[in-house]
Amino acid sequence: MVLEGGHVRIGATTEQNQHERAFFERYLAAVAWTGAGGASCARLIDLFDQLDPGLRTRLAEEFGMNRFIEGPRETRILRLFVSGRTVGLRGESLFAPFIDLMKRGNRGLHASAGPQGGVEIRGEAEGPLFLAFGHHDTLGVFRKYGGERPRPHAFSLATQFKVGPLELAVQRDPLTSIQRSGMRMPQLRLESGTIHLSHVMLGNLRFPRTPRAIFRALMREAEVGHSDAIFDRILYFNRTRFLSLLEALEPHSGELVTRLRRVALFQLAALAECTGAREL
Amino acid sequence: MTQYSAPPHDEWSWESMIQEFSALGGVVKNIVPSEHGLSSRDPAEPVLIRVPPELLIRSEHVEFLDDRIVIDKSAEIPEPVRSFFHRYANTLGLRTAHTAEAIAFFSALAALPDAVRQVLATDFGLSAPLQDDTASAARNQILNSRRVFWRRGRAIAPIIELARYAPDGLKPERGRSLQIYGYASKEIVVRFARHDPLSAFALFGRAVPETAAFSLPMQINVENFAILIGRNPDESKMRGKDPVPAISTDGQKITLSYLLLGERKSPALPRSICRTVFTEAGIQDPDEAFDRIVRSNALKFINLLQGLEPHEGSMTTTLRTMARYQLEALAYCIGSRQLAPS
Predict the structure, then answer these.
(1) Rama region for B314: left / alpha / beta (φ>0; ψ in -120 to 50; rest)
(2) Do A276 and B288 touch (CB under 8 A)?
(3) Buried residues in A3-29 as b, exposed as e (16+ CB within 10 A)
(4) What's the mean pLDDT in B287-302?
(5) A239/chain B closest Cα distance in angstroms
(6) Chain A contacts of B309, Cβ < 8 Å?
(7) If you placed Cys at A84, which of A115, A145, B242, B292 could pair as Cys (CB 3.0 to 4.6 Å)?
(8) How many A×B Cβ pairs under 8 Å?
(9) Which residue on chain A is closest to B305 by alpha carbon?
(10) What's the domain range around B309?
(11) Predicted confidence band at B4 (pLDDT cuts at 50, 70, 90)?
(12) How many other C-beta atoms lie within 10 A of the C-beta of residue A264?
């Protein structure tokens, strides 16, 4: 998808035929982009542009908010529009007409693979239809959709530090996981003296004993001792990062500052949901 | 520092007062009064204030009577000391800048929106006084904030109590007398007692970046036990080099005088203390109990920050900063280690 002259169009390289292309462009122009979608994305990007430059740098470097900050304005608006309206399926981000109009909610329906390779939602709902946020935590929801919502769980920010003779590299990719005993676990790779974890869950309101338990299991597998202290260090790193964001926001005011504060507080609340550990 | 910027004490000059303090056994070296408290006369030299036990007035004996600070008649205190203290307390320190600061603090608390005051009262025990009681609340705060721990109780140490509080201030040294000793580049600040950001806010009306976070008072049910946590860090005993809370058990009820949840200077200590005392009390999974207490505390401060979000003003900013400091201190809980046996 490309943004040209204030309108979203289908890019020249897509596989859609003429008929599908015509439908999409009409749909985008008449419903998706025009119906507040484009305007709300542009508004958020403009709010970022008005932010204090020091804060912008910090948000980009420490919280991965580059997508709101770096690049031409039109590219960022389009990026946000597309990111907020696509669903992830089979490793691809797909724009599905009508499904893209659904607001996201904590108890939303999940998009899944439909017949003939399509995308569908299926389920029962009363009142407005919502689409699930997926695996994203509060920070992830903000980065993907530009909205601030309390989420029941929190993943670590990307970080790296020494654990004994090894390096531990924590990434922030909750979508990369493996299934083990019916549970989603991060992918673990040991490469040239570095343990790579695709993500680390640090808090979970519904299953508060799970985050530490998963981490213990992973460290056992990697034959690394003192897993609880390492988990605590990651937790500490995350808590202090979000607290330091609150401190940085303190002298500023405005709509985006208020929204970013909410993001930090929701994330801190989810980070608190880690009590004990169960056996996996 | 000139006589003109010093606190008002024209009824009794600093020099005369120190002379009388010294006649009663006190020692003051290299100290002058300043706008906010005390300063060193010569920063290159150490400062010393030594208060003999006779001049340390137990706080339970000190009260306000007709707007004057007096020593309870029943207290067995020699007349010269009583006489000195009455003149001192009603001329200096306890009745000067501190009073204005305390009244301003309580007035600002009382002016907060109802919802915020409700949270402060319910979750943090910080009730704003009614308007007519502001002066009385301020007086209590002044007395409470200047107390030092002395021989299983609290006392007011004349002259030392004039200094401002700071977490990195000179620590009161306890021997036969109580003293502060050390170097001060300019203003002399004293660490009267162990505080966390919340207790420092309640006593001094400021957001102070303390290194420790203690649990809010609470009761939590763990396994078959009811754990009652107080908030009196002075009630501790030493285990090796580590202070641990006083603990008492009564059947299935465990009472702790306080519980350390985070400590920047020693991040492995909080969980270690909890693990040790809870295990000794018979709890099977002390780590989970500790995590639940930390969670409950953290969520209350996060909830306060959320409640403050739509509001502005200097007290709101101070409260926000205090809550952030408390959450920062709470975050300093990493790993655990062995404590010395009891």
Answers:
(1) alpha
(2) yes
(3) beeeebbbeeeeeeeeeebeebbebbe
(4) 98
(5) 6
(6) 258, 261-262, 265
(7) A145
(8) 74
(9) A265
(10) 212-331
(11) very low
(12) 26
In a domain, B203, yes or no: no
Q: Report the residue from B330, B331, B335 with minimal CB separation from A229.
A: B335
Cβ-in-10-Å burial (0-12, 13-18, 19+) of B152 comes to exposed
| For chain A, domain boundaries | 2-132, 154-271
User: pLDDT tens for residues A65-113?
Assistant: 999 999 999 899 988 988 888 888 877 888 888 888 888 888 888 888 8
Q: Per-residue pLDDT averaged across A36-55, rounded?
A: 92
CA–CA dist B184, B232 (Å, integer):
29
Q: What is the DSSP string of A114-136?
A: -GGG-EEE----SSS-EEE-TT-
Q: What are the chain A neighbours of B305 within 8 Å (beta carbons)?
A: 246, 265
Q: State the first-to-last Cα distance of chain B, in angstroms, to the nearest integer.
A: 50
B22 and B159 assigned to the same domain: yes
B237 and B159 within one domain? no
Which of B288, B299, B335 is facing A232, going by the closest CB pair? Answer: B335
Residue B217 inside a domain? The answer is: yes
* Paired tokens of B300: 């209350």
Q: Is B288 on the interface with A (CB under 8 A)?
A: yes
Chain A, nearest residue to B286 by Cα: A276
Question: Are B322 and B287 members of one domain?
Answer: yes
A247 contact B CB<8A: yes
User: What is this structure's pTM?
Assistant: 0.91
